[in-house]
Amino acid sequence: MIDLLGSVDNADDFRDGLIAAYPELGMEAAIDFAAPLLFP
């Protein structure tokens, strides 16, 4: 996840990358909530 944070510059790309890397988590709602906090 740290590598992903360094390779994207917006919440949408972070969300898409995280879901692609960990599809089994099923936590899209939590990602949608947290991603904008990381990329205001």
In brief:
By secondary structure, this protein is mainly alpha-helical. The chain contains three helices and no strands.
Walkthrough of the structure:
By secondary structure, this protein is mostly helical. It has one domain. It contains three helices and no strands. The model has no long low-confidence stretch (mean pLDDT 90).
Helix content class: over 70%
Shape call: globular
Radius of gyration, CA atoms, in whole angstroms: 9 Å
The arrangement of helices and strands along the chain is: HHH
Mean pLDDT figure: 90
Structural class: mainly alpha
**Uncertain ranges:** none
**Total helical segments:** 3
Strand content: under 5%
The total count of strands amounts to: 0
User: How far apart, in Å, are the first and last alpha carbons?
Assistant: 18 Å
Number of domains: 1
Main β-sheet, in a few words?
none
Write the layout of secondary structure elements.
Blueprint (H helix, E strand, L loop, with lengths): L1 H6 L3 H11 L6 H11 L2
What keywords describe this structure?
mainly alpha, 40 residues
